[in-house]
Design goal:
Elements: E1 11-14, H1 24-51, H2 58-75, H3 78-87, E2 91-93, H4 94-127, H5 132-135, H6 138-164, E3 173-174, H7 181-185, H8 193-226, H9 231-239, H10 242-264, H11 270-295, H12 297-308, H13 311-314, H14 316-348, H15 355-372, H16 375-384, H17 391-424, H18 429-432, H19 435-461, H20 478-482, H21 490-523, H22 528-536, H23 539-560, H24 567-592, H25 594-623, H26 630-639, H27 648-661, H28 664-667, H29 671-681, E4 700-703, H30 713-740, H31 747-764, H32 767-776, E5 780-782, H33 783-816, H34 821-824, H35 827-853, E6 862-863, H36 870-874, H37 882-915, H38 920-928, H39 931-953, H40 959-984, H41 986-1005
Length: 1007
């Protein structure tokens, strides 16, 4: 007899949408799009209401509350749902599950309260308009919001407490996409009656009371509106409620359906109400800002203002760009997606591995490069008003556009030759156009495009530009740039016309000859049906040629001889020339060619096979973790991140599944080719596992946190979180002030900006995971994620040490050579010094991760630390880790020793120079400029050396002590650095105070 184990599991497994597992990958795309729209829309609402004083009214304050709640609701669920659908991260810790449940149900209750408050707002605005601002004052609004928040939290806190006390002794699989209360309660093996009763009572009370009061409010509103004299006044008054009514229906209808079907909807398919429950958390956050943005004039005007505020200044060109930007964006993304799908089909469908489709793949790559080199900058101009482009970037863009254009013409010629060989010499087709010959043709096309167009960029680059810098175009087109030159550009003009005529003329001539020969061969066929069938294989190519050459030639010669053509027509034609072919080429080939259509249809189940293989790899790795060979574990994971080093067993399964999906491909092949395909797919079976095998590395590690202080980790996380927030805020403020204040564009502050960036990277790479360990019990960290964290910590610690050395050199030059400070430390020197420091850190620390990844880990997986520190990870290996230890000591002494020596030498020279000054006041002032730097040096090196040495030699130091010091080493310097420099540096301090004084004055001036 089985005995029930009443101990709670450490984690649950979220199934996703039961019954639709095969569609998870595709369902994630609309879910992700809806989530991004919800984020963008609600953040826009918050930003617009904050920036626009005319929106500082009760209605919009309630709307901000609604937007904030929507952000919390969707963010607490959708990232995990996408992790399940895309990466099969089904596991969720039991504490994280309870926290997610609390956020979902608590903030759903808060949203219901906010909708009630908005109904009351509409009632006061319509029934008592003269007393509106006196009734709904800022303090009253804050109290209403606080009451809605406390009610939601107060009602839902007991729900999570009741769940956390239940025993879970059966399955730990939750048949849902997130931790919904009743879905979790169904797993309990104890009495769940209190949960059911309390859940129904809380939901009925919250929704019932809110619905009743909303109905009463609208009853009174309706009575007041009907009392108005004119129909227009009634429509206008009630029209202010339209957005709110839509939002109410959008929230309560799916919410009530989801709630009651979880309890009594047993006849409804599970996937229906789970899908509806997912949409309930996604659709309202996505549509609420759209509804209010469309229905509320003030918000609509504020959102649209950035796109139109320069219309009166820039005239018709800005209006024209604004009208075209959406079309260009749609065309570009459609072209990119279709070309990528076409390339994917050619890569994975062996029926398309012939010369014609190889040339089509080349065309797809060229189209992607052509569109990508221009359209992003175009959209940046249209949307962001970012019209500047660096001169070198301009010439690179010009080179890419014209060289890739020449390459596309060459590929079209190669495709015409392919059609000629296929129709005129069908029996010799595969012997003439072998794979090697196709590669040689492609290489010749690439070389020709580069050789013809490189001199063009070189000639334009050498021209002097002393007049206007405005290019009357959407991208750096050759003739448009050349018109800005103030010297004779006849040579460039002649080369352009000669080069384009030679390339296009020769290609068109050879294409015409090819099709003349094709036409002659087709006419020799006896039956008309055969003639039509043979010539129809050329129809796609002919369409693509016309689509390429006609607008291309028109654009070239209009640019060369523009008289009589309006400028906007020239630019529009040039833009469409770069966008229409990439968009339409894959459409033409997928419509006209049956093989491409079939391949694209097979790709979708093929992707599902790969995803199934990935899921199988995860199951195998978890099941065989204790007995799978070292190399196998690594190969399984590398295969399914799209590498070619798969394990033989997984590869054999995948090839069998793939061959079953595309098996019809081999039926049309000759016997010899079919046999070679079978040999390519079928791999030898994997040998049975041996119990003596040990894994090279586990799939993940477990971070203990602070050993010995596990019971107070939740409380320790609070000051750590506050320090991280202070570090992020302080360093971001320093970066913002240095960027916006021209007087701070000096070497000292540029190095300070480098230090702030380094501090942000250091703290951000560790603290979020640390807090999840402390608060949510999420101790697992993937092996590769651990190595990445290790790399970031040690590399940027080395970078920070180098930046402190550079700051010491800056102080030395500023005090010992004050008159030559700006000439010695020029911008180029600072850039080179920063690049050297970064490169040194990356080069010296990269071997750490490489060496750690090659070590065998056959012991436990628990890292006795709060983050992946190098020596803490190395202690888990069961092999010889002497190389890692020696290399770690070598790097530490090289980096720290060198930097400390330079810093000491710099301050020795500074001290000698300062002591030579005549007065005490001058000496105090000179040395005072170094005080901030000395404080930062001490706060960085002392805990760093302590944690480094105690990991290797401090066996008598309590473990939790040096773990705490190691954590503080990554938190204290990022927290204190901006404070130290902000307090000690008068320029930064004055700038910060100025910003806050301006903000405070603006708030006082607001009505």
């Amino acid at each position: 007899m089985l005995h029930c184990n009443h101990s709670n599991p450490t984690a649950f497994i979220l199934m996703g949408i039961p019954g639709l597992e095969s569609a998870h990958f595709w369902l994630a795309f609309p879910f992700c799009s809806m989530y991004l729209i919800a984020l963008l829309g609600n953040v826009t609402i918050l930003s617009v209401v904050k920036r626009e004083p005319s929106l500082h009214l009760p209605m919009y304050y309630f709307l901000c509350m609604l937007a904030t709640i929507d952000l919390v609701l969707c963010t607490s669920t959708v990232p995990k749902i996408l992790g399940i659908f895309w990466f099969h991260l089904h596991t969720i810790g039991i504490k994280a599950c309870v926290v997610q449940m609390f956020f979902i149900h608590g903030f759903s209750a808060v949203e219901s309260g906010v909708l009630l408050a908005m109904a009351f707002d509409r009632y006061v605005a319509i029934c008592a308009p003269l007393r509106y601002t006196t009734i709904l004052t800022s303090s009253v609004i804050a109290k209403i919001g606080w009451a809605a928040f406390m009610r939601g939290i107060g009602f839902m806190t007991p729900l999570t407490c009741l769940v956390s006390r239940l025993p879970f002794c059966g399955s730990n699989v939750i048949a849902h996409s997130y931790c919904e209360h009743m879905a979790v309660v169904k797993l309990a093996c104890g009495d769940t009656t209190p949960n059911n009763i309390y859940g129904i009572t809380a939901a009925t009370f919250v929704v019932g009371s809110d619905s009743i009061f909303i109905a009463i409010s609208y009853g009174l509103i309706l009575r007041a509106v009907m009392g108005l004299s004119s129909k227009e006044a009634r429509l206008k008054s009630f029209g202010t409620c339209g957005s709110h009514i839509c939002v109410i229906l959008l929230f309560y209808t799916p919410g009530l359906f989801s709630f009651y079907t979880q309890r009594w909807g047993h006849s409804i398919p599970t996937y229906v109400h789970i899908l509806l429950a997912d949409l309930y958390l996604l659709v309202p956050p996505m549509l609420n800002p759209i509804i209010y943005g469309m229905k509320t004039r003030q918000i609509r005007e504020q959102v649209l203002r950035p796109f139109f505020h320069q219309t009166h200044q820039a005239g018709s060109s800005i209006w024209f760009a604004t009208m075209c930007k959406g079309v260009l964006d749609w065309m570009n993304h459609t072209g990119l997606l279709r070309n990528c799908a076409l390339l994917f089909a050619i890569r994975f469908d062996y029926n398309l591995h012939n010369p014609m489709f190889y040339f089509l793949g080349m065309l797809g790559v060229i189209d992607v490069v052509m569109a990508t080199s221009t359209v992003p900058k175009m959209l940046d101009i249209f949307w962001m008003g970012s019209q500047k482009i660096d001169i070198n970037a301009c010439f690179i863009q010009m080179f890419l556009i014209h060289s890739v254009t020449a390459m596309e013409s060459g590929v079209l010629l190669a495709m015409a030759f392919d059609r000629y060989v296929a129709i005129s010499h069908p029996l010799k087709y595969e012997t003439i156009l072998t794979t090697q010959r196709v590669a040689q043709i492609g290489l010749a096309i690439l070389t020709r495009g580069i050789l013809f167009m490189a001199p063009l960029s070189w000639m334009v680059r050498r021209l002097p530009y002393c007049a206007s810098r405005w290019i009357p175009h959407s991208y750096c087109e050759h003739m448009a740039v050349m018109k800005l030159a103030c010297a004779d550009s006849a040579a460039s003009h002649v080369y352009t016309m000669a080069g384009s005529t030679l390339i296009v003329g020769s290609d068109v001539a050879f294409i015409a000859i090819s099709y003349g020969l094709v036409l002659r061969a087709v006419k020799k066929l006896s039956e008309k049906a055969e003639q039509l069938k043979a010539f129809s294989t050329c129809s796609s190519h002919i369409c693509v040629m016309l689509l390429y050459y006609l607008p291309g030639m028109a654009s070239i010669y209009i640019q060369g001889f523009p008289h009589g053509t309006p400028p906007h027509i020239q630019v529009l034609l040039a833009d469409l020339y770069l966008i229409l072919p990439p968009m339409l080429n894959p459409i033409i080939y997928s419509i006209r060619m049956k093989q491409v259509r079939k391949a694209l249809c097979r790709i979708f189940p093929l992707i599902d096979v790969y995803l199934s293989g990935f899921r199988m790899a995860i199951r195998r790795s978890k099941a065989m973790e204790s007995r799978m060979p070292d190399s196998m574990m690594e190969k399984v994971w590398m295969k399914y991140i799209w590498t070619r080093q798969a394990s033989k067993g997984i590869r054999r399964w995948l090839n069998q599944k793939t061959l079953s999906m595309v098996g019809k491909v081999a039926e049309d092949k000759p016997r010899s080719e079919r046999a070679s395909m079978e040999r390519k797919y079928k791999q030898p079976a994997m040998a049975p596992p041996n119990a003596s095998w040990t894994p090279s590395h586990p799939a993940s590690f477990l971070l203990v946190g602070i050993p010995g202080l596990e019971w107070v980790q939740g409380w320790i996380g609070i000051p750590f979180c506050l320090m991280y927030i202070a570090a992020a805020l302080g360093n971001s403020t320093v970066l913002y002030i240095i960027k916006t204040e021209p007087s701070l564009h000096e070497p000292m502050y540029l190095f300070l900006a480098m230090l702030a960036i380094t501090d942000l990277v250091l703290s951000t790479s560790t603290v979020p995971k640390m807090l999840s360990v402390f608060w949510l019990g999420s101790r697992a960290i993937g092996f590769h994620a651990c190595l990445a964290q290790m790399f970031f910590i040690h590399a940027f610690s080395s970078v920070e040490s180098g930046v402190l050395m550079a700051m010491a050199l800056d102080r030395y030059v500023a005090i010992c050579f004050p008159l030559r400070h700006s000439t010695i430390l020029s911008l180029s020197v600072i850039g080179k010094l920063g690049g050297f420091i970064l490169l040194r850190g990356v080069v010296l620390i990269s071997p750490f991760s490489f060496l750690a990844s090659r070590l065998p880990y056959c012991h436990h997986r628990s890292i006795a630390h709060s983050y992946c520190e190098h020596m803490a990870v190395v202690k888990l290996v069961c092999g010889n880790a002497r190389t890692n230890t020696v290399y770690g000591l070598f790097v530490a002494f090289i980096v720290v020793g060198f930097d400390v020596a330079i810093i000491a030498a710099s301050y020795t020279l500074i001290l000698r120079a300062v002591l030579k000054l005549p007065s005490n006041e001058a000496r105090r002032k000179a040395f005072g400029t170094c005080a901030s730097h000395i404080c930062v040096i001490l706060s960085f090196y002392i805990p760093a050396l302590f944690t480094f040495l105690t990991h290797r030699f401090g066996h008598n130091v309590p473990h939790h002590v040096h773990i705490m010091v190691a954590i503080l080493y990554l938190l204290v310097p990022p927290t204190l650095n901006p404070i130290v420099y902000g307090v000690k540096t008068k320029t930064i301090r004055d700038r910060v105070l100025t910003v806050f004084l301006i903000l405070g004055r603006q708030k006082r001036l607001l009505p």
